[in-house]
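Researcher: Next entry: Amino acid ABC transporter substrate-binding protein (Vibrio ponticus).
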Amino acid sequence: MKTKLSLLASVVVASTAFMSTAANAADGTLDKVLKKGVLTCGVSTGLPGFSNPNSKGEWEGIDVEYCQALAAAVLGDKTKVKYVPLTAKERFTALQSGEIDVLSRNTTWTLHRDTALGLNFVGVNYYDGQGFMIKKDLGISSAKELDGASVCVQSGTTTELNLADYFRNNKMTYKPVVFDTAAQTSSGFDAGRCDVLTTDQSGLYALRLNLADPSSAVVLPEIISKEPLGPVVRQGDDKWFNIAKWTLNTMINAEEYGVDSQNVDKMLKSSDPNIKRILGVDGPKGKSLGLNDDWGYQVIKQVGNYGESFERTVGEGSPLEISRGVNALWNEGGFMYAPPIR
Ligand SMILES: N[C@@H](CCC(=O)N[C@@H](CS)C(=O)NCC(=O)O)C(=O)O
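Model: Predicted structure:
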């Protein structure tokens, strides 16, 4: 239950969010990014497949590739991105305050975040759900057998809230063991600080890679929540919101129409009107977004379509080995469906 004091604190946070939104609308995020020549993108502190620095310190992952795509659309150069690593707890304040231009960090779209926090979700770049991972020697095969378990979980996440709901609904008790970063959560689990680790299922596969012996851990079959993950911008800047939305939409549409980073130059001469519009050869082009006409071409040429990005970062050819599943295109049995470019 909320105390009067914490209620007052939330009101202050919410009104600060709206004040900074108003300030940013006046500047306009697009103008700010164009002036600086760089996009400031909030990412995680490190989650393989989504946003993670490689051995050379370069950021990689499906969420990082979205930042690159946005930079390619706006600045014509996917390398013009400044990455700001953020824990789950820090991420929304960083966006509200204007420290970052976009948050692209395995963030679940919820009503509260989309409204009270003064934010706008751009779309979904990965449909996920929360799961559990145990050490094999715990000897159980279902989450329903977890009564009394100690659970490693990260603070400031939907994960924490769903965990409480799930155990309460199933009349089970648990002991939360709470950490601030993904690295701390997985090493806590590895060191035996808890019986089970819970997060988004994709995150379980990612964190399993970091265990001393990944084969000692198994993911239980239950998915206890919906976690539609996607990039986020501030409310009150529709121009920027549109650019952020259509960058993701163009990556998904390009996959649907078979345009990728390898064939995009040839596709510039395609007679298919859908492809012409995706690449800005015809149709609405860039004017209504405030971008150059080749913005879609730059996204696909420099980064690629959604399917290419998925395969490279989290897909079956990546260390995470995740199949497309519900993240397949709508016409291939999945949920990925982008509104038309026309
Ligand atoms: N999707 C959930 C969970 C997101 C989350 O932050 N998960 C953790 C656990 S895997 C994470 O990504 N941590 C990375 C970090 O701490 O930087 C949410 O939006 O609340």
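Model: Note for the record: Residues 256 and 331 are 8 Å apart (CA to CA).
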